[in-house]
Design a protein that fits this description.
Nuclear Transport Factor 2, Chain: A
């Protein structure tokens, strides 16, 4: 397997195993201990625990969440992926403004990530989640 193929598989495993299956321990194998994560509207976070918390937050709110890898391209040591999460909002969703009680609504939301791979681990990530679509499906924002 080429390095690029291994990198793509590693990124795919992060989405499918950690977020999709709830195997939070897999994050320890896939991410460098000092992994840096860059998301919109917040300072960068270091370490693996924040990824586990994000996965746990989503899986608590959407216990039946399924992950679908839509697109993936890579070049050199970077892999860009577009993935979707779907399921039923049947648990509380913790937001910075407080918990959103379960609505029973089906949800389907996306995220685009770029992962930087070095020495068999993801060392840095940049991500853009589609929070607006998710919040509309939960009734927190009006739909068009």
């Amino acid at each position: 397997m080429t390095d690029l193929a291994a990198n793509k598989l590693r990124s795919k495993r992060l989405y499918e195993e950690v977020f999709g299956d709830g195997n939070y321990a897999a994050a320890d194998d896939l991410l460098a201990p000092d992994h840096v994560s860059h998301g919109p509207g917040a300072p960068a976070e270091s370490g693996v625990e924040h990824i586990k918390r994000q996965a746990m937050l989503l899986r608590t709110a959407i216990p039946d969440m399924q992950v679908h890898l839509e697109d993936q391209v890579g070049e050199g040591d970077r892999v860009a992926s577009r993935w979707r999460g779907s399921g039923t909002h049947s648990g509380p969703l913790q937001l910075p403004t407080g918990a959103v009680p379960p609505t029973g609504n089906p949800v389907d939301f996306g995220e685009i990530r770029i992962d930087l791979h070095v020495d068999g681990r993801i060392i840095e990530s940049w991500f853009i989640p589609d929070r607006m679509t998710l919040w509309q499906q939960l009734g927190l924002l009006p739909t068009r």
